[in-house]
Amino acid sequence: MNRPSQDGALRRRLQEVTEAEDGLQYLALLNAATRECPNTIALLDSPYQIERYTCFVHVFEFTEKPEYAAIASRGFNVVFAGPTFAHWLLDKQLLTEVLEAEAREGDLVFYFNDEGRVKHAGLNLGSHRVESKWGKGNLFQHALFEVPESYGVKARFFKKLPYEKAFEYFTRFAKENGTFLD
Questions:
Q1: Cα–Cα distance measured from residue 115 to residue 142, given in angstroms and rounded to the nearest whole number
Q2: Cβ atoms < 10 Å from Cβ of 113
Q3: Any bridge partners for residue 132, and if so which?
Q4: d(CA 155, CA 160)
Q5: pLDDT tens digit sequence for 57-82
Q6: Strand spans (E) along the chain
Q7: pTM above threshold 0.90
Q8: Dihedral of alpha carbons 68, 69, 73, 78, sign
C-alpha cells in the first residue's frame, strides 16, 4: 500500500521527533507534533529497555534473547536484525507476502522507500493499526502511515515468522555474512 499524500505534514514532524537528542526532547516534540497534526499515535509501555532493541529486533521477537545477543554482539556488530537481514529474507523468498486485507494480527509490516529498500518494520494489529519501535525512541501503536517520513512510502505485509524459524534464518544469515558460530 502506498502512502497517502495528506499525511505529509505529520510525517515530517515525526521525522523531527526521531532525530531528538534525548528522551525528554523526544516526547516534547511528539506532543508538539500531535497538537499541530492530530493523529492516533499512542505511546506503549515497553517490557524492555528502549535503547536495547530496534524495530526489526522487536518484530522478530529477538529482544533480550541471549542466543540472539550472542550472535549480534560478535565482532563489530556487523550482523544484526536490521534492514539487511530483512532484505536477505526477501531475497531468499523466506517470507510469505499477504495482501493488507488478508494480514492477521501479529503479521509483519515492512516499510519501503522509493528505491524499494526496507527502512522500517512493525507488527500488524489489524484495522490499519501497527505496533512499532521508532529509532532510538519508544514503542508506539499507530495508523499504518503515522510514521516518520524516512520510514518509507510503501507498506507491504508478510506472514509472521515463529521465533524459532526467525532465529534459524538469522543464524543462516549470520553465517553467510562471516560470523563464525560454534
A1: 24
A2: 16
A3: 140
A4: 15
A5: 999 999 999 999 999 887 666 789 99
A6: 42-44, 97-98, 108-112, 118-126, 129-133, 139-143, 154-158
A7: yes
A8: positive
